[in-house]
Design brief:
By secondary structure, the chain is of the alpha+beta class. It has 3 helices and 12 strands; from the N terminus they run αβαβββββαββββββ. Strands 4, 6, 9, 10 and 12 form a 5-stranded antiparallel beta sheet that branches. A 4-stranded antiparallel beta sheet has the order 5-11-7-8, with no helix packed on it. The protein is globular and about 75 Å long. About 5% of the residues have low confidence.
């Protein structure tokens, strides 16, 4: 009874302030227990916005309108990914960029030079709209990161690519750099599992072929806003193994994909 009385008083106060011509008043609330439970499970907490007239709406703490404040926006779970080809033979010391080319971009810079029919990247290699950047009217809330390989890749070649270097995230021209560690820290959760005469003698995935096995960003998702510049970089420090000094030597071509999973935010044209 007391809670109902309290709600009536708050609503009356909000209505009175609104009627006074001083603008609208929004009251934000959520039980502490719900917030603590959401954070403990790595979920995105919600808040409840109560406006005059007892209207209560459930709203994300990372609001879709943050990306499109002047219009409506739609959020949908989706991948953001980029593919690079490692040609058979040596892996040389270099900073190998991902997300540096968009759909229709130059395939040569992503390692596809000399491959028949590969002049431009297709949606099978990336779904980025603008090189190194999220375009205006779009944003991403990244909750998972992973590295996966083409299904026909040889297991030994996958191991060499993973051991050859580390992954780094950079944004805004290198103003923020997050060193993610060796590529092997970031399982892909995708691939062909099992053994048969048709599939060969090796399992061709990195980590367990289950999306639940990938690394999650937990309670702190990565926000990539409209027009924000970013890069993921495979940093190969040397062309030889740290174990015995032998050179990397891929038996065949390998495709590696850095993929991000989360909410894709798109502004809906008015």
């Amino acid at each position: 009874m007391f809670e109902k009385f309290k709600a009536v008083v708050i609503s009356f106060l909000a209505s009175a302030i609104g009627a006074g011509g001083r603008g609208s008043l929004g009251i934000i609330e959520n039980p502490t227990e719900e917030i603590q439970d959401a954070l403990a499970r790595g979920k995105n907490p919600f808040i409840y916005v109560m406006k005059p007239g007892f209207r209560t709406t459930r709203r994300r703490l990372v609001d879709l309108q943050d990306y499109a404040p002047k219009g409506s926006a739609r959020g949908e779970m989706n991948y953001l990914f980029s593919t690079r080809r490692y040609a058979a033979g040596a892996i040389t010391a270099a900073d190998l960029l991902y997300f540096s080319q968009a759909v229709g971009g130059d395939a040569t810079s992503m390692g596809f030079g000399g491959v028949a029919g590969f002049g431009q990247l297709s949606e099978n290699e990336t779904n980025l709209d603008t090189p190194n950047q999220v375009p205006q009217g779009k944003g991403f809330i990244i909750r998972e990161e992973g590295i996966s390989f083409n299904m026909e890749a040889n297991g030994d070649d996958i191991e060499q690519v993973l051991d050859s270097g580390s992954l780094s995230y950079q944004t805004q021209g290198g103003q923020l750099v997050i060193r993610r560690g060796p590529l092997g820290f970031w399982p892909g959760g995708h691939g062909v599992s099992g053994y048969s005469n048709l599939q060969g003698t090796q399992s061709t995935h990195h980590g367990v072929a289950d999306p639940h096995a990938v690394r999650k960003l937990g309670k702190y998702p990565r926000i990539i806003k409209p027009l924000q510049n970013f890069n993921y970089i495979h940093k190969v420090p040397r062309s030889t193994r740290a174990t015995n000094g032998a050179a990397w030597n891929l038996s065949t071509d390998v495709l590696a994909r850095v993929w991000l999973w989360g909410e894709q935010i798109d502004k809906i044209p008015e």
